[in-house]
Design goal:
about 35% strand; 2 domains; ten-stranded antiparallel β-sheet; 6 helices; Thiol Ester Dehydrase, Chain A; alpha+beta; globular; about 280 residues
Length: about 280
Amino acid sequence: MVREYRWRLRVRSYEGDAWGQVSAAGMLRYLEQSAIDAAADAGYGRAFHRETRSAWVIRRMTLLLDGSPARTGDDLEIRTWISHFAKVRGGREYRVANATTGDIVATGLAEWVYLNRDTFTPLLIPADLGVGFDVPGAPLGTYEPPAIDAVADGAKFVMERQARWHETDSMQHINNAVYADWLDEAMRDAIARMGWSMGSLREKGLHLRGEYYYLDYKKAAVPEDNIVITTQIEGMSGRKCAVSQSVATREGIELLRAKSVYAWRSSDGAEADRPEGWAAQITT
């Protein structure tokens, strides 16, 4: 039987965004903590990693948020399990449900890489790890993006920012969840340049919210890096649009490549029709 770890939390008042909902970055933080706690529960906590000078870092992450959003004050139950191991990599799956209603609010699949924490070079995963976790050998869930019709000449935007010290984690690089904040910020910047500012959308009771993210981490950003985020609209179907994004340093070093799907929702999180004129704005 697959070793599954469960825990519960209540969404704190300061964890909600401007709409009182948990953002993609907020959900990624919950999933990261779930992985850490699950490993510790199995005997692979801080003491083990300190003794072996090892660490796990995320290489790829798929996150689906296509259900009703988690909100401030909600009680959530998070389940997680290891799906597979392969030499220096391990897969971990996640399910996040509203503990009151049972509704799924998020699912995820992460690919973690096992590293030497001093040299950041890959380490072979200990042979007994798979036995201890009773690994199924492949993901149990499906994590495909929704089908979106491609558009020709989708609008393209570039935004610059700087990586900050408050975004840095104990590994001395920008935490993996922060990139989702950057991508959402770049998307908001892009639609504002198309004439859809957050203020005007709030007046209409609308916002564009990420429902699918595929994050392919290439290299870690560090504080004070000058960051360039490129956003291009690639498709549209109904209330949803597909987006390709890349994060790089100003010197051209690629840090992350992402494929995302954003969808229109009302201010209270319900599905909503796209605003009039949106389709004409997303092509150049």
